[in-house]
Write a structure and sequence with these properties.
The structure holds 2 protein chains of 2 kinds. Chain A is α/β, with parallel strands linked by helices. Chain A folds into 2 domains: 22-241, P-loop containing nucleotide triphosphate hydrolases (Rossmann fold), CATH 3.40.50.300; 246-314, Alpha-Beta Plaits, CATH 3.30.70. Chain A contains 11 helices and 13 strands. A 6-stranded mixed beta sheet of chain A has the order 5-6-7-3-8-9, with helices on both faces. In chain A, β11 (267-273) and β12 (282-287) form a beta hairpin. The model of chain A is unreliable at 1-19 and 329-333 (pLDDT under 50). By secondary structure, chain B is mainly α. Chain B has a two-stranded antiparallel ribbon with strand order 1-2. In chain B, β1 (252-253) and β2 form a beta hairpin. In chain B, α2 (10-29) packs across α4 (78-90), α9 (168-177) packs across α12 and α10 (181-200) packs parallel to α13. Residues 1-100 of chain B have low confidence and may be disordered. Classes of the chains: A alpha/beta, B mainly alpha. The interface between A and B is large, with 121 and 98 residues.
């Protein structure tokens, strides 16, 4: 539980720990539950300040246990970590958290629930509570339902209230565990917009999700967990860089197209069948490399190769994810 | 409900309006912009970063600052990379301007949390219902004694005492209720204190707020003690009012045969309330300790009630007299020391010391468990 001190030679070493550098640092963070199950295994994580950090992994891969450790709810078995450069107890007033879904008092209204959690924060001012609560409710679009009992909230409204609770004070770090769970597509969009908006204020957002497309849209960085271990960690771009983009050309003249593409220096040129399409049409694909697709098109046409379609298939984070964690979202032991 | 969900939040709308000038155009062109794809940084390959420590990681972050606007457009919209790039320079400002220390704890924060806890306890229908039941019992007992006592005056002991004076109903009510009903009531509130929050999931949010474990435990205990005193006071008040309505007022004849004035009788009722409240607060410590061990509040409540009943049974076995002084319920009935003349202060003091010992012992158990517990609910 001790705070990590940064080495002087580190890029952000000039700044005192927590003033710059990372919002979250873990070193060898391990959690072994009673019974011997290792939920998190020697996790080395660095979440840069100001980033929107996607924390990915199949169910049971240790994401939530990690988040619980960061929030001081679960004590690590080994390793060390710091949140905002300090211990969780000191950092938490500056951290908004959504952990494993919303949890509120069903017999209280949404507003009274927020007041309750605000009262639990020793650094929160009672005087500004009403204003901060109203602002947080407005930010998640719950103003109209503020006086309604939580019991009568829909799943989406409950999720929104949990996000509002995370926004009660000025936060430097938001830890959001599956923030779009139970939200309709519109709500999901709103959460995405909200996350971007919060991030644009300079707040670091650490968001765990199993919705890869969502992470791809929201995040600047990501880490992928599998069975308690970190299998990848970096910027979204760098994660995707491992899987190359491919250009796909649909043409009746597959050999000609393949020849032109090879002639231009494209690697891994393959001719593929198209299911159910015109028997004469073939798909030729190749690694795009540094080529501009429009140039390829022009080159093909110049060489007399008929082009019926040309597309660039970008590797999605999902491809990367599946490559690293295996097919399917099976629960890890 | 539907209105709230259908109406986009005003805050979001404003933000969209602010970002519109830059978002609209680049987003539509994003799929066509392909050239910069290859310039994505090669330095931070997946896999490589898994083994590196925190020291080198900012290098990856620094690379992003430069590479941000050039990120593959198919992956992250140009609009976003722009906003990413734009927010970078802003970043050091709040970091530099922020006070180096964590936000200061505010004076009175503990009392604010206690106030929140009390409001929660005393607004919860279940807890109010239990107080109402406690208030009804002396009324029923009073009416029953009145009906029994009216026909003939050939009564003995407590019944005669109650029938003879309005204040005695309070002591009669305590001796009925202190055995089981009041312990159950207090156990429900104190046993639910941590287990109920854990079971409902609110405990994780309280601790993440951060309420602080020791602080939360102290608040939970004080809250249970206040409820214990409230329950005691409700019984006393209800019995007092019922007694004054149904039975003759006037000087009180004590167990020792002496008669005291009504004013002094009231004073002794207050004394009894203080003692019984302390007894129930001691039980609350036991229930709170149980509560720290489970996420099912009914388990903590049942365990405490079973302990109380077990103690009553043990007390009833003459062969186990030696154990009796160590059992908490043994001391519950000792409030009758206020009915001696003069007041048996020694007995009261002994009882209070026993309660203190129980509070310290079970408070420590609760703290030892709760302060190191993994909150996985």
């Amino acid at each position: 539980m001790t705070a990590v001190t940064h080495e002087a030679g580190a890029p952000f070493g000039a700044a005192p720990p927590g003033a710059g550098g990372e919002a979250i640092v873990t070193r060898g963070l391990t959690k072994r539950f009673r019974g011997g199950q290792v939920a998190v295994d020697a996790l080395d994580l660095a979440v840069p300040r100001g980033s929107v950090f996607g924390f990915l992994g199949p169910n049971g891969s240790g994401k939530t246990t990690t988040i619980r450790m960061l929030l001081g709810l679960v004590a690590p078995t080994a390793g060390e970590f710091s949140v905002l450069g300090t211990r969780p107890a000191e950092a938490l007033p500056r951290v908004g958290a959504l952990v494993e879904g919303p949890a509120f008092y069903p017999y209280l209204s949404g507003e009274a629930n927020l007041r309750r959690f605000d009262a639990a924060d020793p650094t929160a001012s009672r005087g500004t509570a009403a204003r901060r609560i109203a602002e947080a409710l407005e930010r998640v679009g719950l103003t109209a339902a503020a006086g309604k009992r939580y019991r009568n909230y829909s799943l989406g409204m409950r999720q929104r209230l949990a996000i509002a609770a995370a926004l009660l004070g000025p936060r430097e770090l938001l830890i959001l565990d599956e923030p779009t769970n139970g939200l309709d597509p519109q709500g999901t969009r709103e959460v995405r917009t909200l996350v971007k908006e919060i991030a644009s204020d300079g707040t670091t957002v650490f968001v765990s999700s199993h919705l890869l497309a969502e992470v791809e849209q929201m995040c600047t960085h990501a880490a992928i967990m599998r069975a308690g271990r970190l299998v990848a960690h970096g910027t979204i771009a760098s994660l995707n860089a491992g899987t190359a983009a491919r250009v796909r050309v649909e043409t009746p003249d597959a050999p000609g197209a393949a020849q032109v593409l090879r002639g231009l220096g494209l690697a891994d040129v393959r001719v593929e069948e198209i299911d159910g399409a015109d028997a004469r049409a073939r798909l030729v694909s190749a690694e795009l490399g540094g080529h501009a697709p429009e140039r390829l098109n022009a080159a093909l046409v110049e060489q007399g190769v008929a082009v019926r379609g040309l597309a660039v298939a970008r590797p999605s984070l999902e491809d990367v994810f599946v490559r690293l964690t295996g097919e399917g979202f099976d629960v890890d032991g | 409900m539907s209105t709230a969900e259908d109406t986009p939040p005003t805050g979001t709308a404003t933000a969209t309006a602010q970002t519109t000038p830059e978002t609209t155009a680049p987003e539509t062109t994003a799929p066509e912009t392909t050239a910069p794809e290859t310039t994505a940084p090669e330095t931070t390959k997946p896999g490589m970063t898994a083994s590196r420590g925190g020291g080198t990681a900012p290098g990856g972050g620094a690379t992003v600052v430069a590479a941000g606007p050039r990120r593959a457009p198919g992956l992250v919209s140009v609009a976003e990379t722009r906003s990413t790039a734009e927010r970078r320079p802003v970043e050091p400002a709040p970091a530099a301007g922020r006070p180096p220390a964590a936000p200061q704890r505010r004076a009175g924060a503990f009392w604010r949390l206690l106030g929140s806890e009390l409001a929660l306890t005393f607004r919860r229908p279940r807890n109010l219902l239990m107080l109402a039941v406690l208030a009804v019992v002396p009324v029923v007992v009073g009416i029953g004694l009145r009906l029994v006592g009216a026909p003939d005056d050939d009564l003995s002991g407590m019944i005669a005492a109650v029938a003879g004076n309005s204040l005695m109903l309070t002591f009669a009510a305590f001796s009925f209720l202190v055995l089981l009903l009041m312990p159950v009531t207090v156990s429900v509130v104190a046993g639910d204190a941590l287990a109920g929050e854990a079971g409902g999931g609110t405990l994780r949010y309280l601790l993440a707020a951060p309420a602080g474990r020791t602080r939360l435990l102290a608040v939970k205990y004080l809250n249970a003690a206040v409820y214990a005193y409230a329950a005691t006071a409700v019984v006393a008040l209800s019995a007092l009012v019922t007694g004054l309505v149904l039975f003759p007022a006037g000087p009180v004849t004590l167990l020792s045969g002496t008669t005291i004035t009504m004013a002094e009788g009231l004073l002794r009722i207050a004394l009894a309330v203080g003692y019984v409240g302390a007894a129930m607060s001691a039980l609350a410590a036991v229930a709170l300790a149980m509560s720290a061990f489970t996420e099912v509040s009914i388990g903590a409540i049942a365990a405490t009630v079973v302990l109380v009943v077990l103690c009553q049974v043990l007390r009833a076995v003459p062969a186990l007299d030696a154990v009796a002084p160590y059992l908490l319920p043994t001391w519950f009935m000792k409030f009758d020391a206020v009915l001696r003349s003069p007041v048996d202060w020694a007995a009261l003091g002994e009882g209070l010391r026993a309660f203190g010992a129980y509070v310290v012992l079970f408070g420590s158990i609760a703290w030892a468990r709760f302060s190191g517990k993994d909150i996985t609910s």
